Amino acid sequence: MLSERTEVQVRPGTEGDLEALTDLYNHYVRETPITFDTAIFTPEERRPWLLSHPEDGPYRLMVATDTDSQEILGYATSSPFRAKQAYATSVEVTVYLRPDAGGRGVGTLLYEALFEALSGEDLHRAYAGIAQPNEASVRLHERFGFRHVGTYREVGRKFGRYWDVAWFERDL
């Protein structure tokens, strides 16, 4: 359990984080509509995702850890927005937090580190798709200058119902 005084370190993700990152993500696959993945992953199945986020370049993985225990509290990524070459200066960003790490500024620390790491890259825009409702994520993105640009209505089906995804963008 985290205390209000948990010290947090943010660093690039490494292969040694794979199991903990997979476990964290699988929580959202199993329990929430926040991701539209519907089947959990093994660490080996998740390895290509991790390796697609090197320590440099436009596609990054930043990990927040408890300074004392070194447990992973969350992560933020920048990934390709779309596969076609003309989209190369756009990234899609996201944050996932351990369920007990929300509301403590961990997401803010992750995005600060991610956007700082991306500041020297040839990038023009960042996009975020937020399954609705998710007020905490909307507030986090608005705090970082994202603005709502549209909503895809009932675009994903999970847990027997349809979910909207609100899209946000910001300049880089």
Automatic annotation (TrEMBL):
What InterPro entries is this protein classified in?
Acyl_CoA_acyltransferase, GNAT_dom
Q: Which keywords does the record carry?
A: Acyltransferase, Transferase
Q: Note the superkingdom of the native organism.
A: Bacteria
Q: Which residues form the N-acetyltransferase domain?
A: 8-169
Give the matching PANTHER family: N-ACETYLTRANSFERASE, UPF0039 PROTEIN C11D3.02C
Q: What is this protein called?
A: GNAT family N-acetyltransferase
- The organism is Streptomyces bobili
